[in-house]
C-alpha cells in the first residue's frame, strides 16, 4: 500500500462514493468513537447514518479487560446503541482460538490467565477451564519456597493440566504470576496473547498496554506469543466466520496505522479509513509504511456527505 | 574473538600458565562460585589458591537486589571470606553512575526506583535522593483517579524533582509502578537499568530477571535504558577506577557468554574464562558468537594446576 491516502474531510462527493463502496464497517473504538470516557461529538449520528443506509456495523476492540457484555455496557454508558453480537474483543477472539482452533490434548486443556475479568468471562462462554486471572490467591509476593516448588514442578503450585498461557492486560500483574507463566511455557504450554498493544490510552495520555504484560515473558523466554488481537488475522477470520461478509465490501476504520489499518490491509478488505482523533498522525497516514486508503480529521466528518 | 577457546580441565600446565598471566580475577558469582544457595565444592580452595599466589579477587555481580554489604553476608553465609571492597554489584555501579557521571540539573536529582533494598542502600551510600523502591505506598492497585493525576502530572503522584528512573529486579513490580516509571521517562527522566539479564537462576531453574522488569517499559516507551551492569563498560570503568589494575593482566571468569565473557572481551581484559556450571553450554563457548579465551568444566578444575 504505497499510494497516498485520500483526504475525505470536506469532500462530500468523495465521502458518498466511499460509503457506497462498503456493506460492512469494522470500527476500532477508543480513539475513533470516543477517547477514554469522552464520546466524540457526532459519533452516534455517524453510526446512525451508516445503519440507516443498511451498513453492518462491527465494534472491534483489542481491549481484553472487558468481555463483549462489559463492552456493550461501556457503549451504552456512552449512549451508543449496540448489541453484543456486533462486538468483537481480543478476549473473545482468543477464547474462540483456544476452544475451536487449538487442538489441545485431553489432559492439557486448562489455561493459565494473566489478565482481568474480560478474558475469564469469554473463556467461560466457550467452556474453557482456566486458573490464574483475577483469583486473589495469585495476588501475593513470591516466597523462597515458591521458587523451589515452581522449579520442581510441584503440583501444589504448577497445575499439570495447563496447556495454554494467555496474556492480556493485567492491572494486577506481579512477579509470582510472571514466574508461573514463564514456567508453564517452559513446560510446553502454548504462549498466547490477547493482543500486544504497547500502550493503553487513558485520560489523554498513554499507559502500559497489554504488550507490556507479555514483554517480561518474551524477554525471559526468548519467545514471542501468538497474538489474537488486531492486526492478527485470526481475529478477522473469526469476524468473517460470524458475519459471512464479502471482504471486498468491508472497511476497517481506526486511529492506529500499525494495528487497525494494518489489520484491514492484511485482511484484504476493500477499504481502510484512518481518523486523526487517536494515536496515529496525519504524517503516519500519509508518509508511514502502513497507509489507509482514505483518512478524515474525525469520524463525524462522514456526516458531510450530502 | 573467533578463535576456539582452550579447554583447560585436566591440562595442568595449561592451567598454571593461564593463572600466571593474570594479577586480577574478576568473578561472576552465581553459576561460577555457587548456584542459588549451593556452594560448589572446591570454590573456597580455588579462591585460596589464587589469593595465596597474590592475585586480587573481585566479585562482580549483576544482582541488584542486594547491596555490597548484603552480598558480603551472602558470601559469608556460604563460607567464602571476602571484604565489601572486593564486591562490585550493578546497584553500586548504577549509584556511582548517577552520583558521579550524570550531570543532573539541581532540581532533577531524585531517582524513581523500581527495585529492591540493594539499590536503595547503594543510592544512600552515594547520597542520591530517591522515591519508590520498597516504599509500601507504591504497593497498591492503580485507581481511576491515578490515571487522571498521572496524565496531568499532578504533584500528588508525580514528583517534579525526579530526573532518573532506575530499574532493577523488583519482586514487587506492579502496574502502578510501571505507569509511574513510564510517565517519568516521558517527562524527560533518564532511563537507567542496573542490568538487563533476562533470567534469574534459582533452585536449579530460571525465573524472570531484571531485564523482565525493564521490558514492559521498553515496550511501552519504545526506548532502551542505559544498563549499568555487565556487560556495560561503565561497570568495568568503575572497577578499574577502584583497583587501578592493568587490564592486560586481568581475567574475567563467568558462566554466561553474552554478559560475563562479553564484559571481559569488550573491556579488553587480558583473559576470559568460561565455566560450564551455569547458563552457557560448551557449544555456546566453542561455537557461539562470543567465546572466552579458555573454559573449564568447573571453576575448581583450576586446582589441578600442579
UniProtKB/TrEMBL annotation, chains A, B:
GO cellular component terms, semicolon-separated: cytoplasm
Gene3D superfamilies xrefs: HAD superfamily/HAD-like (3.40.50.1000)
List of residues binding substrate: 230
Active site per database record: 28 (nucleophile), 30 (proton donor)
Entry EC no(s): 3.1.3.41
Keywords: Hydrolase, Magnesium, Metal-binding
Keyword presence, Cytoplasm: no
Magnesium recorded as keyword: yes
Reactions the enzyme catalyzes: 4-nitrophenyl phosphate + H2O = 4-nitrophenol + phosphate + H(+)
Residues involved in Mg(2+) binding: 28, 30, 255
PANTHER family in UniProt: 4-NITROPHENYLPHOSPHATASE-RELATED, HALOACID DEHALOGENASE-LIKE HYDROLASE DOMAIN-CONTAINING PROTEIN 2
NCBIfam families in the record: HAD-SF-IIA (TIGR01460), PGP_euk (TIGR01452)
Protein name: 4-nitrophenylphosphatase
Species of the source: Aspergillus avenaceus
Amino acid at each position: 500500500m504505497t499510494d497516498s491516502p485520500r483526504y475525505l474531510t470536506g469532500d462530500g462527493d468523495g465521502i458518498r462514493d466511499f460509503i457506497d463502496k462498503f456493506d460492512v464497517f469494522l470500527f476500532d473504538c477508543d480513539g475513533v468513537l470516543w477517547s477514554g470516557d469522552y464520546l466524540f461529538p457526532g459519533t452516534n449520528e455517524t453510526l446512525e447514518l451508516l445503519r440507516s443506509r443498511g451498513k453492518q456495523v462491527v465494534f472491534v476492540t483489542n481491549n481484553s479487560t472487558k468481555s463483549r457484555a462489559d463492552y456493550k455496557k461501556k457503549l451504552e454508558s456512552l449512549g451508543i446503541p449496540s448489541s453484543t453480537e456486533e462486538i468483537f474483543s481480543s478476549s473473545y477472539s482468543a477464547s474462540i482460538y483456544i476452544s475451536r482452533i487449538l487442538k489441545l490434548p485431553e489432559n492439557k486443556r486448562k489455561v493459565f490467565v494473566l489478565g482481568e475479568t474480560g478474558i475469564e468471562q469469554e473463556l467461560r462462554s466457550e467452556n474453557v477451564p482456566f486458573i490464574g486471572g483475577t483469583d486473589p490467591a495469585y495476588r501475593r509476593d513470591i516466597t523462597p519456597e515458591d521458587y523451589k516448588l515452581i522449579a520442581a514442578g510441584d503440583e501444589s503450585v504448577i497445575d499439570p493440566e495447563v496447556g495454554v498461557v494467555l496474556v492480556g492486560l493485567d492491572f494486577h500483574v506481579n512477579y509470582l504470576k510472571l514466574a508461573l507463566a514463564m514456567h508453564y511455557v517452559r513446560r510446553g504450554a502454548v504462549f498466547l496473547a490477547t493482543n500486544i498493544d504497547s500502550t493503553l490510552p487513558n485520560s489523554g495520555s498513554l499507559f502500559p498496554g497489554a504488550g507490556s504484560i507479555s514483554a517480561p515473558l518474551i524477554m525471559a523466554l526468548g519467545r514471542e506469543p501468538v497474538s489474537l488481537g488486531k492486526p492478527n488475522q485470526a481475529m478477522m477470520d473469526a469476524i468473517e466466520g460470524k458475519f459471512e461478509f464479502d471482504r471486498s465490501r468491508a472497511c476497517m476504520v481506526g486511529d492506529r496505522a500499525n494495528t487497525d489499518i494494518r489489520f484491514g490491509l492484511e485482511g484484504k478488505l476493500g477499504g481502510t479509513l484512518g481518523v486523526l482523533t487517536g494515536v496515529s498522525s496525519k504524517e503516519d497516514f500519509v508518509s508511514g509504511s502502513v497507509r489507509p486508503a482514505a483518512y478524515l480529521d474525525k469520524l463525524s466528518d462522514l456526516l458531510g456527505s450530502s
